[in-house]
Amino acid sequence: MTLRFYDTASATVKDFQPVYPGEARLYYCGATVQGAPHIGHVRSALVFDQLARWLAFRGYKVTTVRNVTDIDDKILVNSAASFEPDYAGNHPREEWWALAYRFERVFGDAYAALGIAAPTYEPRATGHIPEMHALIQKLIDDGHAYPAQDDSGDVYFDVRSWPRYGELTRQRVEDMQDAPDADPRGKRDPRDFALWKGHKADEPETAGWDSPWGKGRPGWHLECSAMAAKYVGTHFDIHGGGLDLRFPHHENELAQSTAAGQEFANFWLHNGLVTYQAKKCPSRSATRYPPSRCSPRPVRWPCATTWGRPTTVRSWTTDPRHCRKRRRRSSVWRPCWSLRAPRG
Fold it and tell me: CA-CA distance, 220 to 262, in Å (whole number)?
């Protein structure tokens, strides 16, 4: 029986024909490690773990890549907050790289608690700066990127230079929101997005790398394009992630990779989100829905049966005093909660 997947880019169900016979190469977006995860943060890892297992069961040699974004505006902001005099957390004066590594380990514990297998490769953004420089230079040489016009050290992708921009989400450039990732004064078009961010005076010296355009750090979208090309190639089978990443993240990934001459992914697969009270779980839910305190089965099953649709958290408690049924599994209480799939 032929495997068939719903491809977000074409909005159709297509037969799965691997790029390389007998192999299946899958890249999906991992965590930005600025804080502790809740159930929603690990849903992509869960569903693409299930997909990888099924592909392996069907006889494919599976390569999975899940990146770690360990340099980001939010990471720098959270680290800077720990140096403030009124900081009341448990990790005062925590450097950005230490904070990122600490939460990378917390995510690792969450994946393990839910039985999510380790990917074939789990590259960090900070370990692939040379690959990002090479991709930026290729885009500049081909007329699809330019250094900022305000001497900030930023480099932007020129969305007007690429006629296919918007193809993933089927939007026209004129209808898109402005890119909020940098000061628009240095841009040709407010929708141009940052490939490289020039170093700012209030940022740590360690949060910048030398480049042909000045000291700085990579833009979020660039990271995944560079790492995908390195580990699964410039033409691969499946790119995955949550529905909330379709725009702008995946749209920008697709644009910069194809503008650089890559075929990129044959399929774009997006999983639904975990919602609570009809809304996407907010980041503050990490203390209410900690994956590391969950048993796998109550989480894996509803997420598996509602792949592309929202999975709703109806109730939650990890306090054994409030549970009718409880059982000890090592040192973890099985949470009394329910996940509900929408009808239809």
Answer: 19
- Residues 236 and 119: beta-carbon distance below 8 Å: no
Mean pLDDT to the nearest integer, 132-161 = 96
Structural domain containing residue 255? 4-126+220-340
Number of domains in the chain: 1
Q: Which of 187, 166, 162, 161 is nearest to 176 (CA)?
A: 166
**Angstrom distance (rounded) from CA 261 to CA 55:** 28
Does 167 fall in a domain? no
Q: pLDDT at position 283, please?
A: 59
**Unique residue bearing structure tokens 């930005």:** 32
This prediction's pTM: 0.87
Residue range 62-80: mean pLDDT, rounded: 97
Q: Which residues contact 32 (CB under 8 A, 6 or more apart)?
A: 69, 72, 74, 75, 220
The answer to whether position 321 is within a domain reads yes
* Residue 281 belongs to a domain: yes
Lowest mean pLDDT among 41-50, 59-68, 128-137, 309-318: 309-318
Q: What span, in angstroms and rounded, lies between the C-alpha atoms of 291 and 294?
A: 5
Domain of residue 329, CATH code: 3.40.50.620
